[in-house]
Amino acid sequence: MPETAPITVPGPISPPHRLLMGPGPVDAYPSVLSAMSARLVGQYDPFMTRSMVETQELYRHVWGTTAEASVLVDGTSRAGIEAAITSLVRPGERVLVPIFGRFGHLLAEIAERAMAEVHTIEVPWGQVVTPSAIEEAVVRVRPTLLALVQGDTSTTMLQPLDEIGDICERHGVLFYTDATASLGGNPFEFDAWGLDAATAGLQKCLGGPSGSSPTVLSDRAVAVVRSRARIEAGIREAGDPVAGDFVRSNYFDLGMILDYWGPRRLNHHTEATSMLYAARECARLIALEGRAAVIARHVRAGEAMLAGVRALGLTVFGDVAHKMSNVVAVKIPDGVPGDVARAAMLEDFGIEIGTSFGPLHGRVWRIGTMGYNARRDAVLATLAALEQVLARFGHPVRAGAAHEAAADHYRGSAVDGREATA
Ligand SMILES: *Cc1c(COP(=O)(O)O)cnc(C)c1O
Predict the structure, then answer these.
(1) What is the DSSP string of 180-208?
(2) For residue 409, which of 281, 290, 304, 419 is within the disulfide window of CB 3.0 to 4.6 Å?
(3) Tally of domains within the chain
(4) Nearest CA-CA partner of 363 in 385, 341, 396, 330
(5) How much distance in Å is there from the Cα of 77 to the middle of ligand 1?
């Protein structure tokens, strides 16, 4: 054997204790971490198939749908986004993307890479798009697909989706949403809102690690995906090398992924078994606690955090009426060095909060209350630490005010006469 350079072998992985109160990723539920360390089974073991079927059903519940096509796309949230867009759109077809934050730009970029003709409308960061502006653009652009983010963590805004499905229906447009940041912590009704496709990730309100993208398609969207597959087969049979009229990606071909998850279990990729276990546990916890109860817990934590940061004298960014329940953006006060203060939160208290992107970088901090961390103790600990750090950098705070405001909110939001415990 050839000589290799000596290697210093690092110790086994041993992460520090952190409380992840940024815009995601957040701490996973303990039982999700346990699920990930469960024994592996083979790709076609009956247990694997059973676990996949259970996971499909659990996610139908999370999405609010009876649609058959509920699957996981292996990969982070953008794996689901790429699979949905590249499988629903043919090169040259028009895609409309209303943009109200960073992730709208991502949807537009992915649609462009899928060689769609991409049209965008934009509103300033901190606002959402009105249904009438969307309808006006739909009429003007006549897209095949409307791609719209539900919750954009870059701005914390929650785009209302409930009136958009009717608009798409009226104009024969497929309706896709990226619900990565919002699913589980804010209302989501796939069927009632007339959606054709939706994708998410685990690392926000679902309380898991990133690496699996729950994805759902309406029957209408499945028919479109299938028609793409037929075109591809036709091209292959005819030996016609015409490029461009079918899904180029193998990994993100939803037709193949549906066949893999379907009753025939046709081979595609090797299921990411530990991620399947994690995704199953995330959805199982939601079903166990109750979909509405989980959302209410996020609302409670988000409102308590909002009351707390306001009591610290911080100004909240954006249209608060349209804020997601699970994340708040606050303006960094004049004179406070944003990144140094964030580093102090991490080093002194082990608490991570986020900054933002693009026009908001260095101007706001984003504080999340998601999944496992949508809890009273996590909210109160974060506010207590923030108070100390702000005081140290000379921002005037009244000692105890934030704690009082947030704790008061929890006391006032008892549910059904019971004191809220989460
Ligand atoms: C956080 C987030 C993502 C993350 O995508 P990854 O591929 O998991 O990094 C995608 N979309 C939205 C709207 C998000 O908020």
Answers:
(1) TTTBTTB---TTTTT-SEEE--SSSTT-S
(2) 304
(3) 2
(4) 330
(5) 5
Same domain, 276 and 297: no
The annotation status of 60 as a binding-site residue, yes or no, is no
Residues 181 and 308 in one domain: no
| In a shared domain, residues 304 and 398 | yes
Asked if omega into 46 is within 30° of 0 (cis), the reply is no
Q: Quick one: 281 and 302 in the same domain?
A: no
Answer for the pair 308, 141: CB distance below 8 angstroms, yes or no.
Answer: no
Task: Give me the domain span that covers residue 386.
Answer: 291-412
Q: Please tell me whether residues 351 and 303 are part of one structural domain.
A: yes
| 0.90 surpassed by pTM | yes
Q: Return the CATH number at 273.
A: 3.40.640.10
- β-partners of residue 344 are none
Q: What share of the chain is helix, strand, coil (3-state, %, to 5)?
A: 45, 15, 40
**Nearest Cα residue to atom 1 of ligand 1:** 181
Both tokens assigned to 92: 């040259």
By most ligand atoms within 8 Å of CB, the mutation choice from 73, 74, 78 for ligand 1 is 78
Q: Are residues 201 and 301 in the same domain?
A: no
Cβ contact 82:88 at 8 Å: no
Q: At what angle do helices 273-289 and 46-63 cross, to 10 degrees?
A: 40
Q: Is 76 strand, coil or helix?
A: coil
Which atom number of ligand 1 is nearest to the Cα of residue 152?
A: 13
Calculate the CA dihedral of residues 140, 79, 47, 266 and round it to 10 degrees.
70
344 and 244 share one domain: no
Q: Among 97, 103, 158, 275, which residue has the most ligand 1 atoms within 8 Å of its CB, making it the best to mutate? A: 103
- Domain co-membership, 200 together with 216: yes
Can you give the pLDDT of all 422 residues of the chain as single tens digits?
677 889 999 999 999 999 999 999 999 999 999 999 999 999 999 999 999 999 999 999 999 999 999 999 999 999 999 999 999 999 999 999 999 999 999 999 999 999 999 999 999 999 999 999 999 999 999 999 999 999 999 999 999 999 999 999 999 999 999 999 999 999 999 999 999 999 999 999 999 999 999 999 999 999 999 887 655 555 555 554 444 456 678 999 999 999 999 999 999 999 999 999 999 999 999 999 999 999 999 999 999 999 999 999 999 999 999 999 999 999 999 999 999 999 999 999 999 999 988 888 889 999 999 999 999 999 999 999 999 999 999 999 999 999 999 999 999 875 543 444 44
Tell me which amino acid residue 63 is. Answer: W
